[in-house]
Amino acid sequence: MTIDAKICGLSSEDAVAAAVEGGAAYIGFVFYPRSPRSVTPERARALCDRIPVSVRRVGLFVDASDDEIAAVLDAAPIDLLQLHGHESAERIAAVKRRFGRPIMKAIAIAGENDLPAAAAYEDAADMLLFDAKPPRREGALPGGNGLTFDWRLLAGRRWQRPWMLSGGLTADLLPEAVRISGATAVDVSSGVEHRAGEKDPGKIREFLARARQL
């Protein structure tokens, strides 16, 4: 089974190089100002110049306006929009119509009751991403918190759209996460960092090497 890996929240040339050389299928840039991983559209454009066309460039947005999305797409060659907020299915369809990019919708998971929400997005989104629900504290980010959820919740389930597993993954956790959940695509951010917002090229290479072994 081939495991596609997405390295998210990149902001440096070294991190991008490690992701490309390691065989990442997706490279993600965060356009959410509250995140320590946030980059400007101009910075993303410069980093995208280092990414071959065979790697999909992902822009992560959280409840962004059309103007905010347009400002990024006017500057940077983003292939896929990842919507990681409280966007409705109607909002996703509207964004897709306006910008003509495929969309991946993040679904926050803490328990069984969170899974039915995914069905509402299957018609509008092109991909789903299952991430751990943020902690209940003021100022918590919608993702990149280093939290996992019970991967057994996804085991044996079938979705109409391709899906990706996220939430607290590391190179060491990856084999078990894939085995239990059945994921064929995974996303990592905090699990390949020195500290929040600072990617570790060595950890990126290690994660991608482990993904290839699967």
Walk me through the topology.
Layout: E1 4-8, H1 13-22, E2 26-30, H2 41-48, E3 56-61, H3 66-75, E4 80-83, H4 89-99, E5 103-109, E6 127-132, E7 163-165, H5 174-181, E8 185-188, E9 193-195, E10 198-199, H6 201-213
Parallel strand pairs: 1-2, 1-8, 2-3, 3-4, 4-5, 5-6, 6-7
Antiparallel strand pairs: 9-10
Second-tier CATH architecture = Alpha-Beta Barrel
Name of the CATH class: Alpha Beta
Order of helices and strands: EHEHEHEHEEEHEEEH
**What is the helical fraction, as a range of percent?**
25-40%
Key descriptive features of the protein:
8-stranded parallel beta sheet; alpha/beta; TIM Barrel; 214 residues; 28% helix; 10 strands
Structural notes for this entry:
It is a single chain. With 214 residues, the protein is α/β, with parallel strands linked by helices. It has one domain (4-213): TIM Barrel (Alpha-Beta Barrel). Helix content is 28%, strand content 21%. The strands form 2 sheets. Strands 7-6-5-4-3-2-1-8 form an 8-stranded parallel beta sheet. Strand 9 and strand 10 (198-199) form a beta hairpin. Helix 1 (13-22) runs parallel beside helix 6 and helix 2 runs parallel beside helix 3. The longest helix is centred in the C-terminal third of the chain and has 13 residues, at 201-213. It is globular, with a radius of gyration of 16 Å. It starts with a strand and ends with a helix. The mean pLDDT is 94.
Summarize the structure.
This protein has 214 residues and is of the alpha/beta class.
